[in-house]
Amino acid sequence: MKRTALLLALTTAVLLPQAASAEDSSEIDKAKAAAFDKRVFAGPVGHKASACFVRRYDASHLAQYPKQKVSSMKLLVTAENHPKEPTSYAYKVGVQFRNKPGHFDGGSACSHMVDEDGNKEISFSCDVECGGGGLEVAMSKDDRSAIVKLEVIGVYDRRHPKRDAVTLQGGADDKVFRLDRVDNAECADLTDHRVASLQRK
Question: What is the pLDDT of residues 150-194, one digit of tens each?
Fold first, then answer.
């Protein structure tokens, strides 16, 4: 039942990204939110913006962290403005596992949040509706990397998109990922095929 709810939630989120709710937006200073967006997207959002972050873990790293399930991760963060509507934010993630063949994708809508643990830093909170969980996207101090804090998300086998989601949960060595900023072309494989495959269901 949980996996079915997660599948429905992620399907809805990928096809119909939702903007941050008015209540959430009213709690975040607009200037601070715009400043965070500029850090993420390396400039103002304008009509549309995207940013790509990637990390591939080598054998040495994986040997050092034997409980890490993820062998590579790429993250595409997008923003889009529509007239008279709040800016909508979303992420798509591509994952490879150390002990599971194939490429796995997932995604959801995001909104700004403020870290209340003393530093008041802004980040993106990307939740999985109905199923709970999600992830948080913050930025490194030099803005060259995204810091992904994983709770739990669902990802889909790219070869078999009609199958149930595979749960990726933040375990002992999969709680925080530092992904480096790269050219957006490296995230091209995340942009279209997932939506197209879901629409064929």
Answer: 999 999 999 888 888 899 999 889 999 999 999 999 999 998 654
Q: Residue 43 is which amino acid?
A: G
Contact (CB, 8 A) for 55 and 180:
yes
Following DSSP, what letter does each residue of 28-75 receive, concatenated? Answer: S-HHHHHHHHHHHHTS---SEEEEEEEEE--HHHHHH-TT--EEEEEE
d(CA 156, CA 160): 8
Look up residue 77 and give its two tokens: 């963060």
CB within 8 A of 91, min separation 6: which ones?
Answer: 75, 76, 77, 78, 107, 108, 110, 124, 126, 135, 137
Residue 138 token pair:
């913050």
Q: Is the pLDDT of residue 85 over 50?
A: yes
Identify the CA nearest to 46 among candidates 81, 20, 12, 11: 81
Banded pLDDT at 29 (limits 50, 70, 90): confident
Are 35 and 114 in contact by the 8 Å Cβ rule? The answer is: no
Residue 26 burial by CB count (10 A; 0-12/13-18/19+): exposed, middle or buried?
Answer: exposed
Sketch out the chain's domains with CATH numbers.
Answer: 2-199 (2.40.128)
40 pLDDT above the threshold of 50: yes
> Is-contact 89 17, C-beta < 8 A?
yes
Please tell me whether the overall predicted TM-score, pTM, comes out greater than 0.90 for this model: no
